[in-house]
Every structure is written in structure tokens, then in C-alpha cells.
Amino acid sequence: MGYVISVVNMKGGVGKTTITVNLATSLAKDHGMRVLIVDLDTQINATLSLMPPLQFAALKKENHTLKQLIHQLIQSNSEPKIPAKNIIVKDICKVKGLDLLPGDIEQYNDFLLAATLYAQSNKNQQDFERNWNILEDCLLQNILVSVTNDYDFILLDFPPGDYLLTRSGIIASDFYLIPAKPEPLSVIGIGILEGHIKKLKESKRSNITLIGLVFSSIGHATNLAPRVKKRVTADFGEEKIFNTEIPLNVAVAKAVDEFKPVVLTEPKAAGAKAFVELTKEFLQKLSNTLATRG
Ligand SMILES: Nc1ncnc2c1ncn2[C@@H]1O[C@H](COP(=O)(O)OP(=O)(O)OP(=O)(O)O)[C@@H](O)[C@H]1O
Ligand SMILES: [Mg+2]
User: 3-41+106-293 — its CATH code?
Assistant: First the structure.
């Protein structure tokens, strides 16, 4: 069974999507792993980092996006169901073993989910709350259950912030990876995330374990960076901080315009090399985490 991994920070713009697509690509290309990327963000940045907008538009027209799978799970009608396997795009960017479950710009947001569940609960508040918690516990697990055996890794790319899909993804995950910028607000995003995860674990709804925290130097470097890194290292322990840091590199930003990850467009660029190193360290850290978790 594949490991489900959340790439998550409550803060936006810290490199979650860029790390997800490049780590996944390197796992497939350099290590022969079978990897699925699941785009849980209505910004569809992971999807558009791997395919041109016209290809996405064609999939959307056919309802071949994550939204359809969510719809099928929450609407109990007798429409013919499209299995997850038929929605997943195989060997994306022509990389063998690299698959994508495309996101959707109109994914179910919390308001739509709540409205649907409230109607299904006959507007009874207690029933609604119970059904909401059940949905949170099961949504992502049910979406992934039929394909988990097909992969070594399933990487979840989240939007910033705390939504039902995010909590459901965390509940479905075995491990998580935190991308962060070495700046104070990014650290606040980590603190909020850790608070949410602590609550889910205390209520026995999640058994997720941290693999590590990756610093990505997007934006202007500040002289606060060393202080921030020191604080985070003190909080998480040195063994949880990746030695590999992702440098600010124009090739990384340019790759998005080619709808491919930088490890494919410019493998010699500093950013691409860092992602390849990050992938090796990721596998090492995962193995250490598995050993200590028992
Ligand atoms: N190493 C890098 N060098 C240059 N630009 C980068 C680098 N990493 C990411 N970027 C760019 O910075 C922006 C934010 O990165 P990214 O989309 O990965 O962050 P995110 O955490 O997924 O954001 P969001 O919270 O909006 O989903 C993007 O435009 C991306 O192309
Ligand atoms: Mg993103």
C-alpha cells in the first residue's frame, strides 16, 4: 500500500505546490517510484504545473476532475459513477509512473458541502454535525481507497488555510511534510497547522507523523532567516529539518510557464538540483521516521 503524504502549511505561497510536483517527479523519474499527485486546491496550481490549460479544459468538460469524485461521494443518487482510475491522468509530462488526479476550479467548498449535508440531515443540527465529522473522516480515504495499492506514494497538494478537504486529507495521510519560508509569518502558519494536527491526533482521528520541514527561499531573503530557522529547529529537533534548502531560482518560476516541473525543463538549474537532493533526503528521512515510529 502506498504512503499518503500531506504537503502542508496553513500559510500561502511558501512553496507547497512547487515542492509537491518536483518531489513527485523526481521520485518517479530518478527512483522508479509510482507516484500520484492529488490536487486539492481550487487554484489548480499543481494541475497547471503539469499540463497546459487546454488539456485541463478538456478534462473539465468531461467531468474528469476531483470534483466529480467528491460529487459522487456526497450525492447519493444513482448516476453511473466514474471510477478514480478513469479520472487519473497517467504518466503525466511523459514521466513513467507519475500520475495526477486533477483538481477543479469549482471544487466543493465548505459552504457547498455544508449546504448539501444540512439538506441531507433534514436540517437537524445534531445529525448535520455527525454527518460533517463522518465526511471529514472518510472523504479523502474513500476517494483514494481504490487506487492506494497502485502507488508507492500519494502526495496531497493543499490550499492554504483550514478547510474540510484539508482536514480530510490530513486524516487520510500517513505522513506530512511542511514547506516553509524562513520568515516569521510562515512560522505562524506552521504553529496553526501543528495546533490542528494535535487536535486531530488527540481525538484519535489522525495518526499522521511528520517527516520533516523544508525551507524554500521564495521572495526576498531577510536577515531574520537565521533566527527563524534556529527557532524552528529548536521546536522540531534538528533531525526533522531538511539539510537541503530550495534556493530562489528563476528556472523554477519559468518552468510553470511550460506546464512542467523544473526537474524536467532545466535539470541543470540550481533549483532542479536542489529538488533532486531534496528527494534523496526525503527517502532517507522517511526511512528514519519509519524506524523510530516502529
Ligand atoms: N525556488 C523557487 N524559485 C523561484 N520561484 C519559486 C520557487 N518556488 C516557488 N516559486 C514560485 O513562488 C510562487 C509560490 O510557490 P508555490 O505556488 O509553490 O507556493 P504554495 O505554498 O503552493 O502557494 P499557495 O499557498 O498559493 O498554494 C509560485 O509562483 C512559484 O512558481
Ligand atoms: Mg499551492
Answer: 3.40.50.300
